[in-house]
Structure formats: C-alpha cells, structure tokens
C-alpha cells in the first residue's frame, strides 16, 4: 500500500472547538469537513483550497495539518463479524455504539484477552468511579490508570509501543483527555496507539457523532442481543476505513459487500415475516430468508472470557476461514444445516 495521508484531527479539534460552525463560516461544507475527519473522504482527494482553509482555521501549516503515515493495517481478532465487516485498524480509534447491557464491555474484555496473545499491552483509562466497568475487564487488562499521568508513565515503559491497546469511556472524549494524552505521547515518540472508546451509559446511541472521528465503528444491534446472538455487532451498520477506502484485498472486499447486501435484504424480509408469516411471502424471499438466517447465526461467536458462564469453549476463526465459510453459506453449502446448528460454531 502507498503512504496514507490523514488529517491531524486532534490538532483541529484543539485549535477549533466548534469546527462545524467555523467551517461553515469560511464557506466549507460541514459534511465535507466531517467526512475528511472520519476518513470517508481521503485527504488525497480533497481540494487544495479546502485543506488550506482548514489550516488557516487551525492557525497551522499544511504540514502540521496533514499526517503522513505508514499504510493502514488491520488487526485480526479472530472474531468473524468484526474481521469481515468492520476490521480493527491498528493505531486507529474504534468506537462502540450500544445501549447499556448489550455486551460492549464484554467485547472490550475479550479483545484485551485475544490481543494479549498477539503481544499487545492493554490499558484501561478509568475516568469515572464506575467500578463495575473496571470489574468486567480487570482480569484481561494489563494496567488500569486513573489519570493521564498514570497512562503516559506506564506507556513510556512499554517495550513494543506499536502494540498498545488503550480503552476508555466516552467521558475521556468529552473532557478532551484522550486528545491531550495522545499529544503528550507524541512528544515521547508514541504515535500508533490503538484506542477503543465505549459508553457504558448507552447515551452514545442517541448522539450523531459521540466519539468524534473514528477509524472503526462497531454498532450493536438490539434485535441480535434480544435473540441472544452475540457479540451482537450489526454487520450492516458497522464499518471501517479499511473497507470504505478499499484498503483490503479484493477477495475480502467482494465477499464482505456481497454478504452485507444479502443481510440487508434478509432483514427486510425478516420484518415482513414477523408481520405476516413465512407462508405468505414469495418463494424467492423464503429462500433468501432461510439462507440469511443461517449466515446471521454463523456470525455468532463463543468468547474465551465467557466460557465459565456459557459453558461454550472460545473460538478463534481466522479471517481466511471466516471469508471462506461466509462465501460457502451464500453459495448454498449450508442450506441443509439447521440454523441452530450454526450458532456459536467456529468455521463452517
């Protein structure tokens, strides 16, 4: 991959507190600025006058505004729905959007556990007195910090600074602590921290942009959770810049897009089935519904940290096996398998 260009969003937000209003005041479309910040519009495709205007707003040079980094890389988690539909960006910012009690803290803890096996050092930045949150993830985390000083001091002693996983609650964004922490870490040469942001209160669901610019968004689905299909991450609304900017191999992109389109139609038919019954819809839709139900069930996964509760052994499914299995299901290879038999299995 070629060198990637990104806006220095932390600098922009620090220099221009109300970026949307400021952008509009100088003739920039807020949507364009937002898409540049989130990576939906690559910096390389932005008009020069737009970048110049942003640099003027931030009172900085273009070199300060644009970060020239290495190729964006994916961290394989072995969790099917994440790796295929919304890959984790190494060194990026990941946002969890979920109501309370939908399993987002369990997913944080599971990622800590899995990535520790890959040599990552995990840190939880505790910004509130919500000890229940810490309890959920304490067994999987390497360090819990109660202040920026704690976090920066600990990270400065970590040997492999390219493999640092930092998680925090949404309040760290609202206070600006995360941006300040990253700025301080840059001064000691730490520039590639993978940051996970979640909101235990569930209020993030009601906000348009609850965490600011993100590289990966994991949106949880109430319907999946209600039917106990975990991890409950919505494969349609969740996304990653790795997919949006087509930074993955062609096979991954092709299967992911095909599966997402298939699941989108399946959900439409599911609403219809719930309303009028399976026997009253067209035969082609029945066929699509049945295959979609199998794909949806396959995307469930047993977690290692949940073994004592569920009794199901944790499963790691490689990206290769996930893609191969999903393609097989879409092609009809699982049509003879009962839906329940596909729940919480590994590869097909």
Automatic annotation (TrEMBL):
Subcellular location: Membrane
Domain called ATPase F1/V1/A1 complex alpha/beta subunit nucleotide-binding: residue spans: 78-194
A matching Pfam family: HTH_26
Start and end residues of each HTH cro/C1-type domain: 6-67
UniProt keyword annotations, A-Z: ATP synthesis, ATP-binding, CF(1), Ion transport, Membrane, Nucleotide-binding, Translocase, Transport
Taxonomic path: Bacteria, Bacillati, Bacillota, Bacilli, Bacillales
InterPro entries, per database record: ATPase_alpha/beta_chains, ATPase_F1/V1/A1_a/bsu_nucl-bd, ATPase_F1/V1_b/a_C, Cro/C1-type_HTH, P-loop_NTPase
Annotated protein name in UniProt: Helix-turn-helix domain-containing protein
UniProt similarity note: Belongs to the ATPase alpha/beta chains family.
The keyword Ion transport is annotated on this UniProt entry: yes
